[in-house]
């Protein structure tokens, strides 16, 4: 069963535009919500993460918005650049393990 | 350099031939895990280990075995590989289990014919 649902599957954005990826989770025991970025031929790497005591976290052009009551969170990439083209995974972690979304392939066109 | 290493990076094998994918981390993490990545399915956890000699099943453990005899190593064993185990495999380690950053290895692409 997919405990973390991610959308869209793929996303094409023009350079300078805003990329938005959404995730929803089911288990209220999750208390750590990271986003991972994966380039072809590489392992995923942590991009940004949030804990449920805050509703938003910003690091440079990357922002996580978190809605605890709706059990949803999203990644916003401002001023998207071609170098941001990658696969993005949301995840939800608890005391024992972490569950990942299915991934979003982002393409930023020059 | 802090890292997770996996070997081999690429492997082509035949159905039923036992194989082992090794994983090693140099960050003294207690938590380690194995994932498989398939198109449209994301990363699915196979097994995880909270500490030496402590392992447990993830979401897709069928056909896999693991062992954790030392803190730094967490090998993945396929006793009798089948074509449906053709996938991209990642090992990861973490200081805080599921509540902290997972450090991923470079991946092992396995093809079972």
Order of helices and strands of chain A: EEEEEEEEEEE
Report the radius of gyration of chain A as a whole number of Å: 13 Å
Low-confidence stretches of chain A: none
- Beta-strand share of residues of chain A: over 45%
Uncertain segments of chain B are: none
What shape does the CA trace of chain A take? globular
Q: If you average the pLDDT of chain A, what whole number results? A: 95
How many E strands of chain A? 11
- Helix and strand composition category of chain A: mainly beta
| Share of helix of chain A, binned | under 10%
SS-based structural class of chain B?
A: mainly beta
Q: Please write the string of helix (H) and strand (E) elements of chain B.
A: EEEEEEEEEEE
Residues in helix, % of chain B? under 10%
Q: What kind of sheet is the major sheet of chain B? A: 7 strands, mixed
N-to-C span of chain A: 38 Å
Please provide a brief summary of the model.
Chain A has 110 residues and is mainly beta.
Task: Write up this protein.
The complex is a heterodimer of chains A (110) and B (113). In chain A, strands 2, 4, 5, 9, 10 and 11 form a 6-stranded mixed β-sheet that branches. By secondary structure, chain A is mainly beta. Chain A has no helices and 11 strands. Chain B has 113 residues and is mainly β. Chain B is 0% helix and 50% strand. Chain B is built from no helices and 11 strands. In chain B, the strands form 2 sheets. In chain B, strands 2, 4, 5, 6, 9, 10 and 11 form a 7-stranded mixed β-sheet that branches. A 4-stranded antiparallel β-sheet of chain B has the order 1-3-8-7, with no helix packed on it. In chain B, a hairpin with a 3-residue loop joins strand 4 and strand 5 (42-51). Chain B is globular, with a radius of gyration of 13 Å. The termini of chain B are far apart. The mean pLDDT of chain B is 95. The A-B interface holds A 6, 9, 31-32, 34, 36, 41-46, 49, 89, 91, 93-103 and B 4, 33, 35, 40-45, 48, 50, 56, 58-59, 90, 92, 97-102, 104-107.
């Amino acid at each position: 069963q997919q405990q973390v649902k991610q959308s869209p599957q793929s996303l094409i954005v023009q350079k300078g535009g805003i990329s938005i990826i959404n995730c929803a989770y089911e288990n209220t025991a999750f208390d750590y919500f990271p986003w991972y970025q994966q380039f072809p031929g590489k392992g995923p790497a942590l991009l940004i993460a949030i804990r449920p005591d805050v509703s938003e976290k910003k690091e440079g052009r990357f922002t996580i918005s978190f809605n605890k009551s709706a059990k949803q969170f999203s990644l916003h990439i401002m001023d998207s650049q071609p170098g941001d083209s990658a696969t993005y995974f949301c995840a939800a972690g608890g005391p024992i393990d972490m569950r990942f979304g299915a991934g979003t392939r982002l393409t930023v066109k020059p | 350099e802090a890292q997770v290493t996996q070997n081999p990076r690429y492997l082509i094998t035949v159905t039923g031939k036992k194989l082992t994918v090794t994983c090693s981390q140099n960050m003294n993490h207690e938590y380690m895990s194995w994932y498989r990545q398939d198109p449209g399915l994301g990363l699915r956890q196979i097994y995880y280990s909270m500490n030496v000699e402590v392992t447990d099943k993830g979401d897709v453990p069928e056909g896999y075995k693991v062992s954790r005899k030392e803190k730094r190593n967490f090998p993945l064993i396929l006793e009798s590989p089948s074509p449906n185990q053709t996938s991209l495999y990642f090992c990861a380690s973490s200081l805080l289990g599921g509540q902290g950053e997972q450090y991923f290895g470079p991946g092992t692409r396995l093809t079972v014919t």
